[in-house]
Write the structure tokens for this entry.
Amino acid sequence: MKTLNPLDATWLFVDSARTPMHVANLSIYSLPEDAPDNWVGEMVAELRQTRAFAAPFNLRLTSARLKSIFPTWSETDDIDIDYHFRHSALPKPGGERELGVLISRLHSHPMDFTRPLWECHLIEGLENNRFALYVKMHHSLVDGVGGMRMLTKMLSFDPAARDLPPPWSVGTGRDGPRPPRPDAGRTPWDKLRAGLRRQGESLPELSRAFGDIAREAVKHETPDWVLPFQAPVSILNKPVSAQRRFATQHYELDRIKKVARAAGVTVNDVFLGLSAAALRRYLGELNQLPEQSLTAGLPVSVRPADDEHSGNAITFIISSLHTEIADPVERLRAIRASTQAAKEHLQGLPKAGINNYTMLYMSPYVLQMLTGLGGRMRPMFNLTISNVPGPDRPLYFNGARLEQMYPVSLLSDGQALNITSVSYAGQFNIGFTGCRDILPSMQHLAVYTGEALEELEAETKARRAA
């Protein structure tokens, strides 16, 4: 039996039928050139025969009734593979719209807390001889960076590799012996004392960090630093329904990098600029754009390079999207100033205190969800925007090339839209997850980010030439 850390457990505490706290990855593959007509069917049969389960796929709640009180994980091999692994097909030829409709439906379904908290759906029938894998897992088991590392282990960089096991047999596993843990051989009492000592050492810096936040809230000494609850109320911040919409967009990563270099900003700043431009236009067409700028909560990974676990290792910063600025380049530079101010505050924190800082910093957001006040009072920020780095080379699954992958994220009351990107093999792929009953024609957001990129390319080129 394993006790969850507070950050992982929080996702179980706030889970509800309308706001399920699962995340997913949608991967689209092209069949091998020499694949016979029954290639997908045979692969499904082979995968279904594999009944070996690795962590975190072999973990389930010890008691579903205690998930919101004292959740713990227990390992199990008693897993119904026919429930967790499902084979679907779109009417041929299935396009992006048809796939998006199916993913929206699958992502709207809550998980069964009496079973391990994951599902894997293989979807065939896509146009251009392709199929998709939609893998859904509860956020208490995985975060973006941990999930990306796990996905990379499940696939191969070798197009000739065959007989790869299914995802649930790989999990967070690694080849070769595991290095000894630093606390190996210590008693639970020794580990507790060491943990308390580390937390105590971080208290002065945590006190300083929150003192800085309080002082900035009163004196406003750093205009670019956005604090919690400085967001305007918008249609993005209503209570959500259980049904989801999902849309995608992708570009060449080099296009994003060229704009970043020309404007003197980062790739993530450009992503925020594209999101801001799309939101400014989308909400403007709905007559719902606030006069005050929207703000975004930005997850920041604090996972060490050698950490092989999949659980949550993140903290948050808040940035202004400067949706009140019409000029795209000025808006981008203003976003850069805002993210820099937030990062400077975060960089002063000790690593040992990051989890405590995150729990305290995000506690108002969590309390809104636990008390039902989310969507009924001023939001901590307007939406979550996340950028997850992925592998920079093509990956394959038993000879099938991974063409694109898209993150599918979660929503909560007061957070009706999530925009998450992942880089992969020279691509920059974006997933838009939204509340079906709040955001009409959400595909427009995806289209508008593309047009915003074209606008930034033209503007930065023109200003260099001037």
